[in-house]
TrEMBL record:
<feature type="transmembrane region" description="Helical">
    <location>
        <begin position="448"/>
        <end position="466"/>
    </location>
</feature>
<keyword id="KW-0472">Membrane</keyword>
<dbReference type="InterPro" id="IPR025738">
    <property type="entry name" value="BatD"/>
</dbReference>
<dbReference type="Pfam" id="PF13584">
    <property type="entry name" value="BatD"/>
</dbReference>
<protein>
    <submittedName>
        <fullName>BatD family protein</fullName>
    </submittedName>
</protein>
<keyword id="KW-0812">Transmembrane</keyword>
<keyword id="KW-1133">Transmembrane helix</keyword>
<keyword id="KW-0732">Signal</keyword>
<feature type="signal peptide">
    <location>
        <begin position="1"/>
        <end position="21"/>
    </location>
</feature>
Length: 590
């Protein structure tokens, strides 16, 4: 049975599979017969994207290049054409007849396999591979790799993705651009700034290469299960040698356009264990310290003090809420001011978050602030830990004394009087009351009596309903963040109005108001702010372009105010413009 018959049979079977299943996955080789000193290229090509690609063993060959992943996505006459290819470059170990076995891939939940390919390796040839194609040389000598620090993290555990471009010493890259940026669905992400592309030396598949780090990203998974990382795709101009030299003996290079991708990766995110999970756990994962401090312990009534709840350490600091402060009702407490001093590097978030409460006592006395506990999941020990603060006491030295219904314990005890027994113990209790019914209708068994008796029982379902709604609201971390940001926006806008005569304080407060407004309405963090992203998100929410322009111009004014003098009329104009723009955005954002 000759080789052409094999090819015809494979084509017929693939065509039949395409018609029935609309999925094609096949192995293609550059040649089926080669010398022992030549190289073989094998492409595993599919027409739909898949996961869990498993190549054959290549036990009779050395892998000298690959896997290189390329993606082609085009439209022709209204029809989409998609091709994804995994390419390998192989060097035979010896002469003989060898079979490259099946490769497998999972596409839409189904497992697909290629047909085995038979390769004949002969004695060495005079011209290995003939005149090598420049595109093949580029594919063998350039590789884009996504290095993931951990493929099976816990929920809210930091992982890093580092994208490296490897280039062989014989090959060069004249320019590159990102064709498709990865979207990290179901992850909180933060790109780490790279200052300059430093060329470094390293090994790829055991061979010497040069490489540059193109991108570093920190990810915190927000869902459990298998989460997919989309690939980074680059358009590159590769310089490969032609095998010829100029009159000075320098190699002549040719430029080849190439599209390379790091390939998609699957991250298997583990849920946090249920065993031992504290009741007050709010999603903190990492290694933290916890403290509660006050600015003073003694003061007079109507004076104020600040109580700070603070968490420091390394972990998902921006992704959980701090425990709430509870104080006696005689102390007036204001809405806390939230502060974040967090930096993000390759190991994740590090720093401090805090809520500062302003407390004003109204009466003289000593008031305990109950202890508060903070729970987190420790990744080092893979267990939950709880930190409990000490109880604090606020001593109010001077001020009015609160009215207390109980007898003052400082009064001297009265002398005991003898008690005379009375056989009619309950004779003084009235069974009717004129204050309810002037016609002296007995209160017992009256409509009012039964209404007052049943009222507490009717109130129980309502109390349960209110409590459940409160628990749902407390559990809505994202919603609470949005509501808090909305309050802060209005607070800072009010603060900006108070500082119209102070340029520095005015523009700081105005910028904070705009940022917190965006947090509340667009659900983005301050670290993600840039004009292009804000403009894109507002456009998607059907906001008019003129309003978007006004909003961005106010942000620019806040930035310019740091470096340039601003007249008072402009400050007043910026405040009026900000208030009007925010009001209009509220009506237009969908």
């Amino acid at each position: 049975m000759n080789f052409k018959f094999h090819i015809s049979l494979v084509a017929l079977i693939l065509f039949t599979g395409l018609v029935t299943a609309q999925v094609k996955f096949e192995a293609k080789v550059s040649k089926t017969k080669l010398g022992v000193n030549e190289r073989l290229r094998i492409d595993f090509e599919m027409n739909k994207d898949g996961d869990n690609f498993v190549p054959p063993s290549f036990r009779d060959f050395d892998v000298v290049g690959g896997p290189n992943t390329s993606v082609s996505n085009s439209w022709l006459n209204g029809k989409r054409s998609y091709t994804k290819t995994y390419s390998y470059f192989l060097a035979p170990k010896k002469r003989g007849k060898f079979t490259i076995k099946q490769a497998t891939i999972e596409i839409e939940g189904e497992i697909y396999k290629t047909f085995p390919v038979t390769i004949t390796v002969t004695a060495a040839v005079d011209k290995p591979n003939g005149n090598s194609d420049a595109s093949d040389i580029a594919s063998q000598n350039i590789h884009l790799v996504a290095e993931v620090s951990k493929s099976n993290p816990y929920l809210n555990e930091a992982i890093t993705v580092v994208y490296k471009l490897y280039v062989s010493p014989e090959t060069g890259v004249s320019n590159w651009r990102e064709k498709d940026n990865p979207r990290y669905n179901d992850f909180w992400s933060q790109n780490i700034e790279i200052k300059g592309l430093n060329i470094q030396k390293g090994l790829y598949k055991g061979e010497d290469y040069r490489y540059v780090i193109l991108r570093k990203t920190v990810l915190y998974p927000q869902k459990t299960g298998k989460l997919k990382l989309e690939p980074l795709v680059l358009d590159i101009t590769v310089e490969v040698p032609t095998g010829r030299a100029d009159i000075f003996g320098r190699p002549i290079m040719t430029k080849v356009p190439k599209t390379v991708t790091a390939g998609s990766r699957t991250i298997n995110v583990k849920p946090l264990p249920e065993s031992g999970k504290p009741s007050d756990f709010k999603g903190a994962v990492g290694d933290f310290t916890f403290s509660i401090t006050t600015t003073k312990n003694q003061l007079n009534a109507t004076e104020s003090l600040q109580a700070k709840i603070e968490v420091s350490g390394e972990g998902n600091l921006k992704l959980f809420e701090l425990p709430k402060l509870t104080v006696p009702s005689s102390l007036e407490v204001y809405e806390p001011e939230h502060k974040e001093s967090v930096r993000t590097n390759l190991s994740g978030m590090q720093g401090t978050i805090s809520d500062t409460y302003t407390i004003v006592p109204q009466f003289k006395g000593k008031y305990p602030i109950p202890s508060i506990s903070f729970s987190y999941f420790d990744l080092n020990t893979e267990s939950y830990k709880r930190i409990t603060s000490d109880e604090l006491v606020v001593d109010v030295l001077e001020g009015p004394t609160a009215t207390i219904a109980t007898t003052d314990s400082s009064e001297p005890p009265t002398s005991k009087q003898p008690v005379r027994p009375n056989s009619n113990t309950f004779a003084f209790i009235k069974t009717s009351a004129n204050w309810i019914n002037k016609q002296s209708t007995p209160f017992f068994n009256s409509n009012t009596f039964w209404s007052l008796l049943l009222l507490p029982f009717l109130a129980i379902p309502f109390a349960i309903f209110v409590r459940r709604k409160k628990e749902e609201r407390d559990a809505d971390v994202q919603g609470n963040k949005i509501r808090k940001a909305d309050k802060l926006a209005r607070r800072y806008l009010s603060e900006a109005k108070k500082n119209l005569n102070d340029k520095a304080l005015f523009y700081v407060a105005l910028e904070k108001a705009l940022h917190n407004y965006l947090k509340a309405k667009l659900h983005i963090e301050t670290s993600d702010f840039n004009k292009e992203k804000i403009e894109s998100l507002l456009s998607k929410r059907n906001v008019e372009s003129t309003i978007i322009t006004d909003f961005l111009s106010i942000l620019e004014s806040c930035e310019l105010a740091r470096y340039t003098p601003i007249p008072h009329d402009t400050i007043k104009s910026d405040y009026d413009k900000a208030a009007k723009t925010i009001s209009t955005l509220d009506k237009q954002i969908r």
